[in-house]
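step=encode ok
step=design start
structure_in=
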């Protein structure tokens, strides 16, 4: 019997460059714009502000800017931003998880999921002045929802203590983009729950509540915590929405930074660089923990 002919060897076309890291094919040209973008608009600005944080207006190196971060107004700004970000991220993570469960595993009609995902993709990027105007027109003192609740149902939101231009008002405003973002980033984790796990739990005698408490939730916990950190970072850097709603009266860190960089009274760019450096450190810690938790979640779902 004649031996089967072996398939011809695949011809590999060498790339245009060779060097220490091996052949570099033409495919690398496709990612060069991404690396150039990151270098120009992420790495270079961060290095510039780090350098400025350790300099005074005369260009001399000093630690005075970092020491000034301990001043009461800046500490209060960081405290306010962290508390606001934690609250909006916590509510957004819990409510978004429940929403994702209802949309994906709740037995709703098939058209509900793509409709929610499409809306979430738009709403998660809807912020700034348009979002502030939308909430003022809806939940302001003369907003549509405020007037309808007062005149039709006899519920006076502002009479019971609600105020759109307060801490909790801002937290509610943040939820408009936090909830959709949570739905988008937790959906792959919920989709990753394998049917075999539920079947195995049922065979061993577990009911629905035991399955979620002992199997599904432990598997989802790293993903939920990672999403919480991502929501925290998303809220911590928000400026335009807060500024459009409250002006400079609500001194979160981005507004204090803006005042130092562009203000006419509190103009101190180097102190602004130091504040930005502090924000970068907080965001770096948050995103690093998110990546660690995401890697852990991916190992569980493989």
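sequence_out=
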């Amino acid at each position: 019997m004649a031996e089967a002919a072996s398939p011809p060897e695949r011809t590999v076309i060498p790339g245009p460059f060779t060097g220490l890291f091996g052949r570099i094919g033409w495919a690398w040209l496709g990612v060069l714009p991404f690396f150039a973008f990151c270098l120009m608009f992420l790495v270079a600005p961060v290095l510039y502000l780090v350098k400025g944080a350790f300099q005074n207006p005369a260009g001399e190196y000093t630690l005075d800017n970092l020491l000034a971060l301990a001043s009461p107004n800046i500490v209060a700004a960081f405290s306010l931003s962290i508390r606001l970000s934690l609250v909006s991220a916590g509510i957004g993570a819990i409510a978004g998880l429940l929403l994702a469960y209802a949309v994906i595993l709740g037995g709703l009609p098939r058209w509900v999921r793509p409709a929610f995902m499409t809306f979430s993709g738009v709403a998660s990027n809807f912020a700034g002045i348009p979002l502030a105007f939308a909430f003022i027109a809806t939940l302001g003192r003369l907003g549509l929802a405020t007037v309808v609740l007062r005149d039709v149902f006899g519920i006076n939101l502002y009479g019971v203590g609600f105020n759109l231009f307060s801490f909790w008002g801002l937290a509610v405003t943040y939820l408009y983009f936090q909830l959709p973002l949570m739905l988008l980033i937790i959906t792959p984790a919920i989709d990753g729950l394998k049917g075999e796990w539920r079947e195995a739990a049922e065979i061993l005698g577990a009911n629905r509540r035991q399955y979620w408490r002992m199997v599904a939730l432990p598997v989802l916990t790293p993903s939920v915590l990672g999403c919480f950190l991502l929501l925290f970072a998303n809220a911590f850097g928000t400026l335009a929405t807060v500024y459009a709603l409250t002006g400079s009266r609500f001194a979160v860190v981005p507004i204090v930074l803006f005042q130092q960089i562009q203000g006419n009274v509190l103009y101190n760019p180097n102190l602004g660089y130091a504040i930005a450096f502090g924000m970068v450190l907080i965001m770096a810690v948050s995103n690093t923990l998110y990546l660690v938790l995401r890697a852990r979640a991916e190992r569980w779902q493989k």
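step=design ok
step=annotate ok -> The first helix runs from residue 32 to 53.
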